Amino acid sequence: MLLCHLSWCIAFAQKHEVHILSANDMHAALEAFPALADAADSLRALYPGLLVFSAGDNRTGDPLNDMYEIPAYPMVALMNQVGFDATTLGNHEFDSGPSGLARLIGLSHFSYLCANVFPDDSLGIHLLPCKVFDVEGVRVGVVGAVQLGTHGKPDTHPDNCVGMSFKPVDEIVAQYKWLRQQCDVVILLSHNGFEADVETSAKFPWIDLIIGGHTHTQLNGGEMHNGILITQNVNRLKKVTHITLVVEDGKVVEKRAENIDVRQRTGQDKVVADMVRFFSDNPAFRRVLTQVEAPFTIEEELGSMMCDAFAAETGADVGIENAGGVRYGNHEAGPFTVSDVLRLDPFGNDAVVMELTGEELRQMLVACSNNDGYGSPFVSGVQCNYVRDKKDSLLIKDLKLTKPDGSKFDLKRTYKVVTNSYVASIADSPRRDQGRSINRKTADLIIAYLERQPSVNYQGIRRIKVTKK
Question: Is 201 helix (H, G, I), strand (E, B) or coil?
């Protein structure tokens, strides 16, 4: 009887390991999936109970994915093949609107966990707020949440969120403390940004792990904050994280995280590689539009080119592109293709034209800078000198406009301004003209503009200046 009791105690006190492979902000990096699948297969061979999670923004970044017959289906198919268990929603999961999101969820073999999004039942968007996974007897509770911007919605065009309501992340997370009583491990799958995740960790000590995304913050494995392990990587599957949680007597007693460099792996899953080749077979995207004389080295150079294209194709005096709308920061000298344009501007935004006084333009640029979350917008037809607060770099104290040649900009004159429909919706400054769509996509304007340029050279172009006082 005593021996039986002792063996039961030894078994009960046995340590268990939970292994997780986590990705974030994959942004349709199809080309990295054969190596990602190889990494997942290698870990599963060692740890059959491996969980594979994404912290959101799986889509938007490659036209092969985003302009597929069913937009973003290639990513869903590849995630199905790799064996993802769950994803939360990133702000870009909304980019194809409610019907597009509902269709993708229906095609997915993994769960979508997001507790702070509340879609109308009529939309058919089947989200779970949380899910409990059984890993060889260890109960792992996962709750998901997505960031909300300054208007209380994820950072996507407001039209993409019609029929949905949202609640702040921390307000919702507080309602899931009951997971602590029912689970051995509690995880927050967060598309809320690294700094926000650190703040969340101080409020909810009952969470064991936050798998983060949104800010593309590269951590060395993970970081401990307030006793909670936080992980996150840069975007486009350059790295993923292998997380190990050691559980004893229903508690996590050890936490480890290590980066896996996906792009340096030599192993390739052959089935996934064949799928990527199939999805990549679209010669229309390889069409060359112009030649780049000198490399683009920063977002402002590419953003300036975009704004020039907007203005040239619409006859506008001023072009505006939000900083967050420029999706990569460099491009080598040589051919610039349709694919390059669609990766640069993947959102399908309409071009919007409006008549603004110089003062209305100035206020709109300030509002865009405040609400976009990525910094000051890029422009053509004007030079911008932002004065930001020395103690609070997010606070704009003043904005001075000049003409491209440095001469005085007339704030009373009326200008024709062109921007994208996202900027028109988030730049909530007072203006008489709210703008009108010209029924052309901004990416189409860029393609048309570049087709007429034998070559382009934007190296060293700087139209935005920021000083601090």
Answer: helix
pLDDT for position 450: 98
Contact 424, 435 (CB under 8 A): yes
In angstroms, the CA 290 to CA 321 distance is: 21
> Is a pLDDT exceeding 70 seen at residue 300?
yes
CA 243 centroid distance within chain: 22
What average pLDDT does range 250-261 have in this prediction? 97
* 423 to 157, 164, 250, 358: CA distances (angstroms): 9, 21, 49, 17
Dig out the tokens for 134 from the structure. Answer: 């059984």
- Average pLDDT over the chain reads 94
Q: Which helix (H) or strand (E) holds 324?
A: none
Asked if residues 189 and 86 have their Cβ atoms less than 8 Å apart, the reply is yes
Residue 205 CA to residue 224 CA, distance in Å, equals 12
- Please, which residues have CB within 8 angstroms of residue 138's CB and are 6 or more apart in sequence? 16, 18, 184, 185, 247
Closest CA to 115 of 84, 142, 152: 142
Give the model's confidence band at 359: pLDDT under 50 very low, under 70 low, under 90 confident, else very high: very high
Tell me the torsion sign for CA atoms 323, 324, 328, 334: negative
Would you give the DSSP letter of residue 113?
B
From CA 347, how far away is CA 28, in angstroms rounded?
13
Please report, to the nearest 10 degrees, the dihedral formed by the alpha carbons of residues 17, 18, 23, 24 taken in order: -120
Q: Report strand pairing: 436-441 vs 350-357.
A: antiparallel
Q: For residues 261 and 276, give the distance between their C-alpha atoms in angstroms, rounded to a whole number.
A: 19
Contacts by 160-163, CB closer than 8 A, 24 or more apart = 160/94, 160/95, 160/96, 160/97, 160/98, 161/94, 161/98, 162/97, 162/98, 163/98, 163/119, 163/120, 163/122, 163/123
What proportion of the chain, given as a percentage, has pLDDT over 90? 87
Q: Which two tokens stand for residue 369?
A: 């800078």
Query: Which pLDDT score is estimated for 9?
Result: 47
Query: Which residues, other chains included, contact 2 with Cβ-Cβ below 8 Å and sequence gap of 6+?
Result: none
Q: Which amino acid is at 439?
A: N
pLDDT level of residue 11 (50, 70, 90 thresholds): very low
**How would residue 310 be classed by pLDDT, with cut points 50, 70 and 90?**
very high
Q: Are 231 and 222 in contact (CB under 8 A)?
A: yes
Q: Does residue 194 sit in helix, strand or coil?
A: helix
The proportion of the chain whose per-residue pLDDT surpasses 70, expressed as a percent, equals 97
pLDDT tops 80 at residue 12: no
Query: What letters, b where the CB count within 10 A reaches 16 and e where it falls short, cover 68-105?
Result: beebbbbbbbbbebbbbbbbbbbbbbbbbbbebbbbbb
Q: What does residue 291 show for φ and ψ, rounded to 5 degrees?
A: -115, 135
pLDDT for position 284:
87
Higher pLDDT, 13 or 144: 144
